[in-house]
Batch of 2 targets.
Target 1
Amino acid sequence: MTMLPQTTAKKLGLVIDLDTCVGCHACATSCKQWNDAGHSAPLTDTDPYGAAPDGVWFNRVHSYEVQTAHGSKTVNFPKSCLHCDNAPCVTVCPTGASFKRVEDGIVLVDADKCIGCKLCSWACPYGAREYDATDGVMKKCTLCVDRIYNENLDAAARVPACVAACPTGARSFGDLGDPASGVSALVRARGGYDLMPEQGCAPVNQYLPPRAVTPLVQQPLSRHAGGIESALLRWIDRVLS
Amino acid sequence: MNPAYSIIFFTTAAGAGYGLLTMLALYALAGDPAANGREALLPLGLAGVLVSAGLLASTLHLGHPERAWRALSQWRSSWLSREGVLAIACYGPALVWAWRLWREAPIGPVVPAFTAVLGLATVYATSQIYASLKSVDAWHLRLVPANYLLLALASGSVLWQALRVWAGVATAVDALPVATLMLAAGVGKWRYWRTLSRLAPTSTLATATGLGTLGTVSSLAWPHTEQNYLLKEMGFVVARRHADKLRRIALLCACILPPLLALGGSVSGGWPASLIMGLAVALLALGLVLERWLFFAEARHSVSVFYGR
């Protein structure tokens, strides 16, 4: 059913901290590893060791340079499905293969119904969906639906693979519809925001901006600063010069 | 956007087919003898072939064509689904129409009118598949459905005129609707291109990353070194360098030369007229394919913003 639910009981999603992300791509590779054997398996690669490797990935890490008033800054930017409340990829689907779950808001593709028309990938402004030409169906981030409810895993491991893999804790998982949840508190505390708000998709995933940087100000060295120790060093410097 | 050849063929051929159906219906309603006799099976059949070939071609770009029937289920939300439902619904009255023509039974106004309305509704649904996508600025415009409908009608009118010339029933007056429709279609397309040149992008790297509040954002490194699905399907950028020239060729071949040739074909008789109309149809096909190719190739998807494009 490609009509979007009016509301969802939960809004499971990710909060991504652009301040602490170091751009190591561990989230992307762990995503690839888990999902290559999970709900949407396989995530086909073509020509993986050749001249033009290509393949299906649910998570991709861009790196941007931001020219600020205090010089330039590198910001690493992981991007995956944002599990939008107003997901255009769902409503355009002609077959009902794309759907948003009422119970937790996760956007999924039923691979048995997908005809591979690719229209959902056109409708998504973020480029979150990737077509698997070998399988002939569209694939996308499942928010590791086969991990987060998986009772065969330790409770602590029931988070998306990307969250479990992140070495800097730049990714948090939780219910963004619950104001009392840890992720909601994080978004409030750090000013989390939507990507491309003008597209009107109401994404669930939130991004935390890089923290403000205190600019380094060079203090001019005073001849008399620093007491006896500095005076001694200055004398040695003069002698040696 | 990647211009898939199956979709270019489908939208142009089916559009011309539905346009031809509409012209036939209009002439039938006006009481034209050639549109009400058994010989009207030829234009009706040609329209059927164009539409059916287009619909079949459109399934070629699917990953699972055998599941195409599933696309009829989500008409409540999806324009692609609505397009499929309307296209199939159009076969109903069209077949009744053909049957009555074959039996030389009275046709009445309802069946041709119903066929034409469903055909044009299908073209509108096709255009809405594109026009409803906010992620592609060049498509999310009111002019897009107008362009699709006018080009479908105008290209159908050229085919209709060619068939009339070949059947030896065309007059110079018949060239008037061709010229009017093509003029409207050409002006519509010209306005569309003028709108494109003034279009400010909805999304920028600043809004895509949310980093615009910190300063000027530029792409430092892509997530991947080679091409991927997103770049192949949505990041197609070939046309932009030659866009101006290609637009002029498309307008000339589709909208300017065919109506002039249609007039020439209507006033001259015999084999030169047939030859002229053959040329008109060939130029029309070339112009339409070019126009539709540009419609895809010139359109920029918002995902390219993430790649700093």
Target 2
Amino acid sequence: MNTVIHTHHLTKCFGTFTAVEDLSFKVARGEIFGFLGANGAGKTTAIRMLCGLLKPTSGAASVAGFNVFTQSEQIKRHIGYMCQRFSLYEDLTVAENIAFYGGIYGLSRKEIRLRSEQLYARIDLAHARHTLIRDLPLGWRQKLAFLSSLLHRPEIVFLDEPTSGVDPITRRQFWNLIYETAEEGITVFVTTHYMDEAEYCHRVLVMVAGRMAALDSPEALKRQYGATGMNEVFLALVRSEQP
Amino acid sequence: MKYALRVLFILIQKEFKQIFRNRSLLPVIFVVPMLQLLILPLAATFEMKEIRMHVADLDCSPQSRALTERFAGSPFFRLVNVSQSYAAAGEDITGNRADMSLEIPPHFERDLSREGAAKVHLTVNAINSSAAALANAYSLSIIGGFHAQPSVPASPAGVAGLAEEQFWYNPRLDYPTYMVPGILVMLVAIIGLFLSSINMVREKEIGTMEQINVTPIRKYQLITGKFFPFWVFALIDATIGLLLARLVYGIPVAGSIALIYLLLVTFLLAILGVGLFFSAISRTQQQAMFMAWFFVMVFVLLSGLFTPVESMPGWARGFNTINPFAYGIKAVRMVMLKGSSFADVQREFYALLAYAAITLSLAVNRYKKTA
């Protein structure tokens, strides 16, 4: 197994509150790794530590072969990240956003032109290239934000609740994009609280109150808990952890 | 190196696009400061015109009338009442119908011709102490001149026990000349400070800062990309301001234009550093605005723009060693009005340069890509 993310007893405390405790797992190249948990379970804290946005309190972790404690800037060259909140500039057009994010990763003008054409073709957005982001429907924005985070061809892409607030059809399209991305060999690390989406992942890690409650493929988890869907698995896990 | 410059270029380009697309920001950057420059220097003036005067003439002689005439003929005074009663004069001041009174005692003419000197009494409403001091000074100069006049037969020039007043350097007490350079510096600084202090924190609020922080961008690149557009806009503002000073107030730059720009460029770097530092340590635009407002309020008042630094207590003057406005306003005034050379303003220049280095480093240091 070609490991791209490796964490070992990773912990983050804010004062006396432990947001993430003793997190140990590995993620393989090209895997779609689901990160599940209720609101406040520590998903965003964990993802922010892996992206080099937050210094862990203790433990160890490496992302794309770099240490999260000492090499956070190197990590940033090799990952893509789509945060929960809005990451595109609403007062810039589609093309300007792509040129901006491509440019700060060091892509040349030619590369940017080439890759934006590919991007437009992929999600059929060529007609809207000069539209301001604020005039674009939410579903399009989310797809565009995802593909923008792939412009510099990262090894891993972190998606923090990319489909919240998006309609079911767009969610389906979004997951097709995720599959295509994983097939290109890019690891997709995705957090969600939609349990139907968890079914699409190769493996899922379920977090409950800052701790890892389960880690396996959706099929194995369903078998283990005698459940018909991930929803039941999730509820069973949350109940067992929170008496 | 090439990559670093390209990233910088892309950041700056993005900021310019956003500014030009913001319909409420452009008028703030250009129109508002210019309007203020046209209004403030005329309003923020200590110049006294039409001081309302009550003359209580108890002598009623040709000499006392001649003195009264001199006040009436001065552009600074307007006679509101001439009486023969001290009490009436006092009542006019108490009732705010007069700003001051001149009381000419009986035997004024007799004393003047016999002894060569005579006493008059001035009463000034000193609620506004600086206005009162000025009214007093104007009056003394008129009275002194009256004594010195040869038409007073037996009075040798200047023997009266009255001090003669003279206004050096600014004989017409032309305040716009003095205020315009200072207000110009203050306005471009306010524009630069407020825009830069809300800029970065605004991206934090929207959420785009998080996306920037996960890119390999360098901290100094981001800070440079953030201050550069405001630096340019503030210098354009300064240029328009200098033109207005020339065309509207007739104040040419007495010294070197290049030196003015050197001072402004350095001054603005210091100010933008402060703004970005505030932005880096704030979580909300409100916090950043409050800090910027407080900074401007305190340091502009201490800077000597509106009140003379010389009349402040020593500890307050001590604050001005860390006050960029004090250095900036003083240096620009000196070059613009007195035609000072670089050697004359080098203390201010180096102080501003050090200030810029410190505040920009602080901004880079306090901006955290990793929390």
